[in-house]
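Quick sanity check, PucR C-terminal helix-turn-helix domain-containing protein:
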Amino acid sequence: MKLNIHQIFEQISADIFVIKEQNQNSCTITRVRKFLPETTVIDSDTLYLIDSLYSFPPDFSFPAHMLFINQYPESVPSVFLSCSVLTTTDISIDSLLYTISDIIAEYQNWECQILQCILKNSSLKNILQICTKMLKNPIAIFDMQQNLLMTAGHVPDISTKGELWNYVLSHGRSPDESEISPSLNSLLNNGRKPFFFQSDNRFHKIKRLIAPLYRNESIFGTLALSDVSAEFTPGEYLNVVQIQTFIEQAIQHTTEFAFSSKHMPWYIEQLIRGKEINQEVLFFNLARNGFIKEKKYFVWTFQKDSADGPSIKNFIPNISYLLNLEMIYNYSDQIVAVDQNLEHYHNLTFYKKMTNFLNQCHMYFGQSMCFENITELHTAFMQSQIALSQRKKEPGISFLEILPEYLVKTLFTSNEADGLMFPSMKNFQNIKKEYRQDLLICLEQYISSGLNLSATASNLFIHRHTVIYRIKKIEDLLNITFSKLSQSELGLLWLSCQRLLFKSFD
C-alpha cells in the first residue's frame, strides 16, 4: 500500500512536524529507511530519515522523500524534493524509524485485512467497519436516492455538529439539499474524485466529505462523512480516497448488492433475499408505494409455462390492473406482487377471474400465507415458490393447499425416512391397489378430522357407514385400536399414510 506523508505523520503528532510537498495528494511511500552517507541507490517510494548535520555534495541526486531532524541542511536544494519533512524538536532517528515503520505496517495490515474480507465475500457492513479503523470521523453509505444503507464508526453526542447525523439516523436518509445546493448533483456527476461539501443553514453549514461510489461503471451511491469528531485533514482525505477504492471493490465482488433486477427496488430485493435493512429507510420507501405498515400482506408469484412468447415483464401492467396494486415487480423470470388486499386471499370469485387471464397468457401463480411484518417477505416469497413448485394442472395454488404433500415429500427425501413408518403398514401391500388407495385416503382424512366419523364422511362425500367399515378394516389390518393410540402414534400413522399415498409399492 502506498502512502502519503500526511497519512504517516498525522498518526504521530502534527504539532512537531513541518511538511513541504509539491503534490499534496501523491501517495508513493511504501517504506522508511535511515539515510547513510554510503547510500548510492535512491528509491522514490522510500522515506529517508536524515541527520541535519549531514552535508550533501553539490552533484547529489536527491530522493523524493526526506525527513530532516530539527533543521534543513544548507546543502539541500529543496526545489528537487517532491516531499520534505522537518521536525521542530530533537527526536531520535532510531525512535522515529521504528514509529514510522510501525505506522506503515499498520496501514499494510489494514489493507490486507480488508482485501481478505472482500475475497471472502464478507458483508459490506463488516468491511466498512474495518475501514473506519484509519478514520477519525464516522462514515456512512447512501444509495442514489439518498437512502441510508449503513453506517460505521462512533457518532459522538455533539449538539451542533451532531445535528446532521441525528437527522440521518432518525430519518434513514440524507436530507434533500438539491434545491438549496444544486452544486451537489453537479459535483456527484463530475467524476469519481471525493469532494468537500458545505451543509446548508439547517445543519450549521457542517463540512462534509463525499465520495461517489461506482459499480460496473454506473454510479451506485455515495460514501460520506462529516467533521463531527475531528476536523478534516489531508491525511483523512487520503484515507477516504483509499476507502472509496476498497468499498467499490467490495460492491463489485460481493453478492450482497449484486441485484438481479433493474425493475425491483433494492430494498425489496434485499427483503426477498432475507437481508436486514435499516427500518427507517424501509418504511419511508414502502410508504411512498402505498404500503401500510399496520396491515397484513401476502405474496403472489407468477410464472410462465414456458419461455416461448413475450417476456413475463410485459404482463406486469395487466396483473397490476387486476390486483389494483403498485407493489408488483419483475424478479428473475417471475412477477412478484405484495398484496395487502386480503379480499384477494382465498377468494374463489377472484381466483376465477385471475384464472381466466392466466390461462390466456399460459401463466400460473403460487400464493403465500398472510404475514404481518414486511421484514418476513423472504419467508412469504419462499412459500409462494414452494406453491409454484408443487403446482400440477391448476393455474394457481396456495401454500397451505400443498403444505401436507410438500412436507411429506421433503421429509421422506432424508436417508432416515425409512424409520418413519408405523408398524404393519406394509400389510397394505396385500390389498388390491384400487381399494388400498380408498383405505389410505380414508385413514388420512379420519386422522386429520380428529377421529370424527361424520366429518370424515362429509369430507370424502361418502356414507358414514362406509367410513365405519373402512376404519374397522384398517384396525384389523394394522392390529390397532384408534381410541388407544397416543397423539405421537397418530402422527406417525398419518405420516406413514401420506408416504404410501405418494409412493407406489410396485
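Posting the structure with no commentary besides this: Residues 266-411 form a domain with the Alpha-Beta Plaits fold (CATH 3.30.70).
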